[in-house]
Amino acid sequence: MKAQQILSAIVVAVVLASLAIPLGSFNTASAQGALPREETLYTFGAQWGPPTSFNPFSWESAAGTTMLYLPLFLYNGYDLSIVPLIAKSLEWIAPDKLRVTLRSEARWSDGEPITTDDVMFAWKLGIELGMSGGCDIYMDLKPVDSHTFIVELKKPNYYIFLTCLLSMRPAPKHAWESIYREKGEDFVSWPNMDLKKMVVSGPYKVRSVSDQAIVFERIDDWWGKSIFGLPKPKYIVVLIFKDVSSAEAAFRAGEIDLFNEALLDVEALKKEYGIGTWFEEPPYMPWWCIWSLYLNNKKPPLSDPAFRRAIAYAIPYDEIIAKALRHTSYRTPYMYALMAPMWKMYFHEEIAKKVWGPKMMPVYDPEKAKAMLREAGYYWKDGKLYTPDGKPVKLVAEIPAGWEDSIISLKLIVNSLRKNLGIEVDFRMPDESVWWEHLIKGEFDITESDTLVPVFYPPWLTYRAVMDPRLVKPIGQEAEYNLERYENPEVAKILDEMAKEVYDVEKLREYYGKLQEIFARDLPIIPIDYGQAWYAYSTKYWVGWPNEKNPWWYPVVTWDMGAMLPVFFGIAKKGETPKVPAWIKELAIPLKEFWASIPAAKPSPTTPTTPKVTVTAPGKTVTVLTTVEKTVEKTVERTVSTVVTKTVEKTMPTTVVRTETNWGVAAGIGIVLLIVGIVIGYAIKRR
């Protein structure tokens, strides 16, 4: 089974879990004594059934697993920087070679040092288990010493390379190697649930597990204390409820601090109970993905770009936002991957306005949709739409049963197609597993789903996931991306050229302009709205939560608590003054600086020597190649390379924005593999 298919099945199992547990019945005393409320952070939305695994290589790993097994790096999408965590530094030593140095302080919870062996063990384990996400196709790892290794690029694709690099997590070789030898491929089924023997790298350990909750306890002598300090909550409790309404009741009562699921009435919660959200006003929630109408590009008449463009004007976007999403989201321009603030440098507004008008996106206009169909040769007979070759237009729309917001959304679209365009549409609600199989095998007509999460990936990866013809599979065969099966060889050429660039804004802007034009012309899928990252918090016990006015970290959903980890360092107990962790800024390696430090591929012998310039900040080092020319008077006629050390001041952006994007990172998702980050964002279809 493909990774996404496996994860989808897990999501189904999670959603169908039947544990009716009101907060009043949650009782840690049954295991290890009552927890002090002022020291405990309660969260909901990450776990829907009893935890069965803390193995980071398992598709069934419980919420919080990524907080137990830290990555080498985190990623800050607000100032586009890499934050070394277990790793200490990065250094380009050739255009295709990067040296990574680990922190000498890093230790496993049993006191053993975290070394290169642990990185190599996790890397090889991912490959042997078939869980590398294809990272081994693009790069390889070679150990140098106990705390240093080299990353070698096999193919010139810096986007995928960076995503893979920042997904790396060491695994405790000394504790797991014998288990892997015994279990082989079945290692993915090893639960890692023996709490006394569990070895972790993060600042929390698992204190207790029950049908009601997972309780994490802070490790007060954690190895990173001298560098990062300690997270503020002594305990983090992941609560397990059967349904959102029960959890929401506990949230209203102040017994849940962080809520990461769909709320039934956000406005009322804010007004009556003082609940905080990312935005003060609608849409309240930050965006997470792009929710789109998928049309099968292999099935007539959906294979006709003119038909797809007409459909775009028959979608009641505003009604979807109001009725299906209750104003907790907003429209996404058709060039979805470029509208986030970090990517607007590549956006061609003139192209968008030329295609879609002043709003730069299609609007609900059934009459225009009809006119476009007539122009393309379609016609009506007895109120029914027919193709130019005389066939009645009949479609099947399907969405999984239980996806309430998506069901409402797709029904609104179906009703419009029936009423306004005379299209016969059969609306179906299969089980999620059936729906997913239809989607990945191309055995669908129209449905709703998300794209590759642009919050965590650069636009290049998003466009590739939607438009790269090399990802297309025949109908009946499982595809991982390009699920609508759009084929255009021109896109492949553009993507390949772009993959060689990293921060040449003008070149990339030119390439993205071409992709914009192609997307607008062919419209392989139709973006509808920004999928929400459900994020709401209570200030009854904890304050200092990041939000639109104080955007010091992106509020990723808590099923990836590793990426959420900085939030737990930055909040404070009610009555205390919260402080943004200084290390987020001080240890940051700006991405632009990182890209600029890549040595030239073929240095010309006539150009000046390019010495290494070490850019330092507390606790981190990144080496940049710069050119320094110095002429020694008369006695020596040559260029002299000098070493210059400079300190780069890092600043957090002060502009308040309404969308945020991470530059190609699922920095807390997965273990030494790109695929965990991708499939979680891609396969969890409930916004």
Oligomeric category? single chain
Q: What gross morphology would you assign?
A: globular
Helix residue percentage: 25-40%
Global Rg: 26 Å
SS-based class: alpha+beta
> How many strand elements?
26
- What is the count of DSSP helices, taking H or I runs of 4+ residues? 22
Distance between the termini: 24 Å
As laid out across the biggest beta sheet, the strand order is 8-9-10-1-11-20-12
In percent terms, what proportion of residues is strand?
A: 15-25%
Task: Report the average pLDDT across residues.
Answer: 80
* Contiguous runs where pLDDT drops below 50 for at least 5 residues: 1-32, 602-687
Largest sheet report: 7 strands, mixed
Secondary structure blueprint with pairings:
Layout: H1 3-15, E1 40-44, H2 65-68, E2 73-76, E3 81-84, E4 87-94, E5 97-102, H3 116-128, H4 135-138, E6 139-145, E7 148-153, H5 158-165, H6 173-183, E8 204-209, E9 213-218, H7 225-228, E10 235-239, H8 244-252, E11 258-259, H9 266-273, E12 276-277, E13 287-295, H10 305-312, H11 317-324, H12 349-356, H13 366-375, E14 379-381, E15 384-386, E16 394-398, H14 404-421, E17 424-428, H15 432-440, E18 446-450, H16 459-467, H17 489-498, H18 505-522, E19 525-532, E20 536-537, E21 542-543, H19 561-570, E22 572-573, H20 582-586, E23 589-590, H21 591-596, E24 612-617, E25 620-625, E26 646-647, H22 674-683
